[in-house]
Amino acid sequence: MFGLYRTSAHISNTNNVSPAIRSAYAGAALDSPAAARYTHGMENKLDMTKKRLSELSQRAERRGIVTSSEFLTPAEQAGLLSLRPGPFELDGGYPGAERRAAVFLPWEGAEWASPVACLEVSPVSARFAEELGHRDCLGALMSLGVRREVLGDIVPVGGKLYVLCLESISGYIAENLSQIRHTSVRAVPAAGVPEPPEPPEESSVVAASVRLDALVAAVYKLSRSEAQRLFERELVLVNSLPARGPAAQLRPGDVVSVRGHGRFAYCGPRRETRKGRLRVRVRIY
Description:
The chain is an alpha+beta fold.
């Protein structure tokens, strides 16, 4: 089962922390008023989340029990690292999960059960099924009143969707998720763990510079003005945090999410073209 996977993330061993989380942990100043306002709200939410995580950690130690959180974004996982709590694990249900729940242990090496369940969502009739993606499934779940915080990653594999969720909500989803868009679906506990999806192959794009807006424009074939509007509408995130503005510089391993377009990982520059533009390496999801 998905829930049997454990991803170690003890504070004493930050080598287990993904580059995306390390980047979020490092933090950066924002250079636009809109981004600053958005980030102020995000910081308040992060502060509340850190307080709740601290309480869970203290409860585990005080009562000698295992406690767990809801799913955390990479930014919230970074906030957890800054707390330096007692022993804990991060569990997303499969290796490489982005959204993960924190499991706080009363002592190092304590036994614990995963709070994560996996549901396999597939069309009732493949013949009449639409092509369904992450956004379609998430929208259907939200329409059922399911909060985002109890949902982990939604992974498409082989024409099916694997929904990672808290065990406590899995029965409700299995019973009530019957349609995504116009396609009738069924949700059942996953019989096994499919192979995690391979990351996309590295490709290259030609950009005017290594500015974030130039890279977004190059990856999604947008004009510079179209890319600028994405920043004005606060639709660009870097490692799950608001972009520092269109002039921000990326580091290899940074993951850029552009709402309405997708996400890509920046792998670094490759070489300069004869016309003085840059060819950069990316992985487009």
